[in-house]
Automatic annotation (TrEMBL):
GO terms for biological process: DNA topological change. One of its GO terms (molecular function) is DNA binding. It comes from Sphingobium fontiphilum. Monomer. Residues 130-551 form the Topo IA-type catalytic domain. Belongs to the type IA topoisomerase family. One of its GO terms (cellular component) is chromosome. This is DNA topoisomerase 1. The active site is at 293 (o-(5'-phospho-dna)-tyrosine intermediate). Residues 819-831, 840-854 have a biased composition (Basic residues).
């Protein structure tokens, strides 16, 4: 028997169909081990030795692989054809070697598409593991580990509230932050445009002013309204005739097929997909055998694929759409170490695959690949110059017409933040013609700041700078979102205060390591390892000998000194100049204090120098940091019964009220949905009186209590809960409504009982159990009736597939030690109960039922 290892069960199922009965295909479910998330996993003093640890949720699968490997005569490692795929194969081999389960023959095979022909051809041409790719993987993994586990603790201790820093992540964040600074420092410049609406032979067109008083008019030439009105008057007074008509032919060639980064960019522009969603859908299309491998830097297509594409073009269009010779594309990506084929359909005869997002992404890939082999588009650009009688003023009209669409009949590439081509059609005109002037317009404009990055433009910028690699962009951008360093609005990246604070810290104290040139140069060195041109431990040594002392130096500095440096560095943003010229650091509360950046237990904040007399503070770089100032504790009044002060304060988890001091103090969080929108003394008294007893339930005689909990306002009766609609209802609900509300909650199941599933996903591919997507207290989860698995933040519920759900359930089931403990304990107690049951066991049975009920 020959054992084949791939990453996913979907891939395993497909490949097993192509191979004979002598082959058994198992999935590793991705990586099987990694560096433990603790100090010492990489040892720089011992040749950067790495201590690997098996994933806890892969124990069952690794046992299955090892059991089968012991029976196999040959092991075939058929993971993905890139660096990560090579690493997974290497890990599998090393784990089996440690278990003494490695077959005598071990081969590595790679295929670019999961089709029968590609798989069988790969099986016929095995090779050994690529040691250079494995070294490159180890170097990257060690480097990212060393940066993360050395730099992040510095952040935590010197910049409270900061979450983490990473090698590529920090540089991507710097790009977003720098764009934010550019926008803030941008000064709009006024300019005016003058244009005339004209007509020739009944067809209207627009001509703009390009020469005035003998001077050439550029975009910013007319900067004042007075000049614009004078120019408008001159155009209105002049009689313009056509001086010359110039027509130029234009040719547009089709873009090459997709690479990983261009697919992410185009899917973001045209489909609105995030990079991570694009890669998830592409992975599924690849595993279904619909497209070639989706992690690639290459733009070339296999000769047979080019022939198939040309055949499909000939069948769809007439002969003019098929160029005489096949088009050949060359990879422009720097150090394209993963230069496999471009992303393309496996069959050009299939123009549709799947439904929903799968169908949309496949359609994009299909059209781009097919268009890449189509004829160029032929266009004609016409420019018409019109001059007045004095020759001092001139207008120009431009238009573009498509003579032959070529590839544009099928596909046109999207663009980021650029104006559309001037594609207006012009009437036929000749020298001496005098078109009628209908109207003259003078319009005011202001220059615009550079646009914020979209996912597409940020990926494009990273690729241009040579930072990171296309296969890592999706996860890099996802980390920035997960850390709340950025937020997405209208598909644009906005830098959060926390992201700006981290970037400022890194730029000030680790400038070299977040510089674009250094990061790109390090990528080149890592690529040299892939190509066998550099030794991985030497590359790490060169990095570590400078990086380690730098982190030690920063760690020795006092947090107050670091905060003082950041206060200077961030001054333009924290304290921008005021319009009235007054001191931007002046405290708005006490007037004579000076504001500055401080560091606290829960993060950075801005405070007055007159503390504690002046308690003005403003959060910065913390959740809720943009909510404005906190002017310190505020006395709302005295409690009508106790006479004690009720004070409004702000804490780590938001505003709250307090009455009394020390351990005896009574506190309550301030709800966000107060009817009047503010915290008044009356509301404070009500909140401090909670919980409120509504009354005794008419059936059970037990109390019904209304209160505010972690998840909002609720009713509680005999251990059962009912949700209330808002804070006001806690104090307004009566007995009848409370009984009805609790009964409705019981019918729905209350907390923890069955709810309607959000979606039925289908049967588990391995256990046949029905899998459902549910909404729980802590977010969406999937269940097969026996195991519940929470959805990671990286997976959108609407994008979840059956296979992803099955993998989550399998992983959760494998990582459930509590159940194992119960199984071990049960046999000891089961035996005496069985014996007892043979005798008069009537008394024991109720005891077991009672225990189960409890």
């Amino acid at each position: 028997m020959q054992l084949v290892i791939v990453e996913s069960p979907a891939k395993a199922k497909t490949i097993e169909k192509y191979l004979g009965g002598d082959f058994h295909v198992l999935a590793s479910y991705g990586h099987i081990r990694d560096l433990p998330a603790k100090d010492g996993s990489v040892d720089p003093d011992n040749g950067f030795a790495m201590s690997w640890e098996n994933y806890g949720d892969k124990g069952k699968q690794l046992k299955a692989i090892a059991d089968e490997a012991k029976k196999a005569t040959r092991l075939i490692l058929a993971t993905d054809p890139d660096r990560e795929g090579e690493a997974i194969s290497w890990h599998v081999q090393e784990v089996l070697r440690a278990k003494k389960a490695l077959p005598q023959t071990v081969d590595r095979v790679t295929f670019n598409a999961i089709t029968k022909a590609a798989v069988l051809d790969a099986m016929a041409h095995p090779r050994a593991l690529d040691e250079d790719l494995i070294d490159a993987y180890r170097a990257r993994r060690a480097l990212d580990y060393l940066v993360g586990f050395t730099l992040s603790p510095v952040l935590w201790r010197k910049l409270p509230g900061a979450k983490s820093a990473g090698r590529v992540q920090s540089v991507a964040l710097r790009l977003v932050v720098e764009r934010e600074r550019e926008i803030e420092s941008f000064s709009p410049q006024e300019y005016w445009s003058v244009a005339a609406e004209m007509e020739q032979d009944g067809q209207s067109f627009t001509a703009r002013l390009v020469r005035w008083k003998g001077e050439k008019i550029e975009r910013l030439t007319i900067g004042r309204e007075g000049d614009a009105m004078a120019a408008k008057a001159d155009v209105e007074a002049g009689r313009f005739t056509v001086e010359k008509v110039e027509t130029k032919p234009l040719t547009r060639n089709p873009p090459p097929p997709f690479t990983t980064s261009t697919l992410q960019q185009e899917a973001a522009r045209k489909l609105g997909f995030s990079a991570s969603h694009t890669m998830r859908i592409a992975q599924q299309l690849y595993e279904d055998g619909a497209i070639t491998y989706m992690r690639t830097d290459g733009v070339q297509m296999d000769g047979s694929a080019i022939s198939a594409a040309r055949k499909a073009i000939a069948e769809r269009y007439d002969g003019g759409y098929l160029p005489e010779k096949p088009r050949q594309y060359q990879t422009k990506a720097k150090n394209a170490q993963e230069a496999h084929e471009a992303i393309r359909p496996t069959e050009f005869g299939r123009d549709k695959v799947g439904s929903g997002d799968h169908a949309r992404l496949y359609d994009l890939i299909f059209k781009r690949a097919l268009a890449s082999q189509m004829a160029s588009a032929r266009l004609e650009r016409t420019t018409v110059d019109l001059v007045d009688g004095t020759g001092s003023h001139a207008l120009r009209a431009t238009g573009q017409v498509v003579i032959f669409p070529g590839f544009l009949a099928l596909y046109e590439e999207g663009r980021d933040d650029s104006d559309d081509d001037d594609s207006r059609l012009l009437p036929r005109m000749g020298a001496g013609d005098a078109p009628a002037k209908k109207k003259v317009m003078a319009d005011q404009h202001f220059t615009q700041p550079p646009p914020r990055y979209s996912e597409a433009s940020l990926v494009k910028k990273l690729e241009e700078l040579g930072i990171g690699r296309p296969s890592t962009y999706a996860s890099t951008l996802q980390v920035l979102k997960d850390r709340d360093y950025v937020r997405i609005e209208k598909n644009r990246f906005f830098a959060e205060e926390s992201g700006r604070l981290v970037t400022a810290f890194l730029e000030r104290f680790f400038e070299r390591y977040v510089s674009y040139d250094f990061t790109a140069g390090l990528e080149d060195e890592l690529d040299d390892i892939s190509g066998g041109r550099a030794q991985w431990q030497q590359v790490l040594e060169a990095f570590w000998k400078d990086f380690k002392p730098k982190t030690a130096e920063v760690m020795e500095q006092k947090p107050s000194d670091i905060t003082a440096e950041l206060d200077k560095f961030l001054e333009p943003m924290l304290f921008p100049p005021r319009a009235d010229g007054s001191n931007p650091r002046a405290c708005p509360l006490c007037a004579d204090g000076q504001l500055s950046l401080r560091g606290g237990r829960f993060g950075a904040f801005i405070a007055c120098s007159n503390y504690p007399e002046c308690k003005y503070t403003r959060k910065f770089g913390q959740p809720g940091g943009s909510d404005g100032a906190d002017t310190g504790p505020e006395i709302l009044g005295q409690h009508p019964e106790t006479g004690q002060d009720i004070v409004k304060k702000s804490g780590r988890f938001g505003p709250y009220i307090e009455m009394g001091e020390g351990k005896e103090a009574k506190r309550g969080s301030i709800p966000k949905d107060l009817p009047d929108g503010e915290m008044t003394l009356d509301w404070a008294v009500k909140l401090l009186s909670l919980p409120r007893e509504v009354g005794l339930h008419p059936e059970t005689g037990k109390p019904i209590v209304a209160n505010i909990g972690r998840f909002g306002p609720y009713l509680l009766h005999d251990g059962k809960y009912g949700k209330l609609s808002g804070t006001a209802e806690i104090f307004e609900i009566g007995m009848n409504s409370a009984v009805v509300r609790l009964a409705e909650a019981a019918n729905r199941g209350g907390r923890g009982a069955a709810r309607e599933p959000l979606k039925m996903l289908g049967k588990h591919p391995r256990t046949e159990a029905e899998i459902k997507l549910m909404e729980g207290r802590f977010g969406p989860y999937v269940t097969d009736g026996a195991t519940n698995a929470t959805l990671p933040k990286t997976i959108a519920p609407e994008a979840l597939t059956l296979e992803e759900a099955a993998q989550l359930i399998d992983a959760r089931a494998a990582a459930a030690p509590a159940k194992k403990g119960k199984k071990k304990a049960s046999p000891k107690k089961a035996a005496p109960k069985k014996d007892a049951a043979k005798k008069p066991a009537a008394k024991k049975a109720p005891a077991r039922k009672k225990a189960a009920a409890e």
